[in-house]
Amino acid sequence: ASHCPSCKTPIRLRDNIPVLGWILLRGRCRSCGCQISPGYPLVEFAVGAAFALLAWCELATGGANLPPRTEAWKPLVAGLPFDWVLLGVWLYHVTLVSILTAMALIEFNGTRPTRGFYIFAFCAGLLPPLAWPELHVMFASKMNRSAWTTTDVNVRLALQYLVFGAMYGTCLGWSYDPRRSERQRVIQLAAALGAVGLFLGDAAVSIVACMVAATLVLQRMLLSAGWIAAGRVPHVALVLLGTLTTIVFWLTLRGVGRPLESGARAMQGAAVLGACALLAILFHAFGRKPPQ
Fold first, then answer.
1. 28 near 36, Cβ under 8 Å?
2. What phi and psi values does residue 10 have, to the nearest 5 degrees?
3. Most buried of 31, 78, 228, 257, CB within 10 angstroms?
4. In angstroms, what CA-CA distances link 187 with 52, 78, 178?
């Protein structure tokens, strides 16, 4: 539960309102008067802005970023019927954003997620689509169509997408830094991309993995040039930014990650593996020990 970092006193409900609670308390604990880091309201504002961005793209515009379906998406504005499917899809996506945000903050603080956190993330991605298949929005994989589909939403397929993303994350993490001391970051990167695959499917996780690979290459170059601050960026934060970009521009990016049968999946995998190879070359070229 939320508590003061100094005196450990539980924060009251009225003081725990995101952003506003910190402002009303003037950044200090009500009990001991100790200063509370401004990082808390900044994170709360950033997460709220991400929620608002997805609400604008998926709710206000009637799913303009989502693949088309048989029954058109209806924007949630005054005077129009309430589209429960669209609202459910938005809630499903903000759940993924929340999970990735928590993982990024945990990595930034130098700690590791608990087993219960991983179980919660797995259940949050797997169980809702089993009960409500329309939540699992993805592009059709047959006949070169880019339409919205909910076919074959089952445990086997969900686990396949999870493993697909986890393999991407493992390859990226080990190629970036294969040292034993960095194993935990590899695990967290694999778990983050696995969650993306579980929530969004193989097409989306391919796009996100390519984005993460490109940013990891840039991060390694900045580190070699002496930009030490670049090494402090959590790798899961890159997954978070890539996931937000993919959801917002999903319809635009469908040609990049569309899981077609005519070799597109092989091309996606080759692109990610090529990025992994480039990361490994950069790592060994600039030394096994990154700049401190």
1. yes
2. -60, 140
3. 257
4. 30, 45, 12
